[in-house]
Predict the structure.
Amino acid sequence: MPAARYPLDIRVASPQRGQVDLVALRRLIREVLRDEAQPAGTALALRVAGDAFLHALNLEHRGVDAPTDVLSFPYDEGEALPVPEGFEDEEGRYLGDIAISLEAAARQAKSARITLDEEVQHIVLHGVLHLLGYDHETAAETRDMEEREERRLGAHIHGGPRRRGRAHTD
């Protein structure tokens, strides 16, 4: 059986180009969509930017006047967002958008004593899980999300032996 097709629109702001492993991010996102039983054609967009962009989004959409590491914008919640061209697929669905701050990820990686790629994978995974409907408003929801992240990335992502510091800021 051929692998499911999951269209991904990943764009990296000029200052952040060349700093992240886009092949690994694509693989991670597609594995999560497959493991979460998403139909072929399920799509999402990822923007890799800096603190200024995430700060503006955080202020506009959450009323928080500070940068953050990751924001997720589910397509089926809130304001209607235009689906990127070429993402219409009657078999799948458009999940929404994720934006990450590479600057925030770098600070968190340094504080946690993990690599930038590990932290970027963590916050992207966190964003994908939000698009899939997972949240961390209650203790049970938080445990469920963290367990999903740890199964994929390892226990150190939330403070296991190699991590020091907060896992993420959203």
In short: Strands lie at 8-12, 43-49, 70-74, 94-101. The chain has a mean pLDDT of 86. The CA atoms of residues 41 and 92 lie 4 Å apart. Residues 8-134 form a domain with the Collagenase (Catalytic Domain) fold (CATH 3.40.390.30).
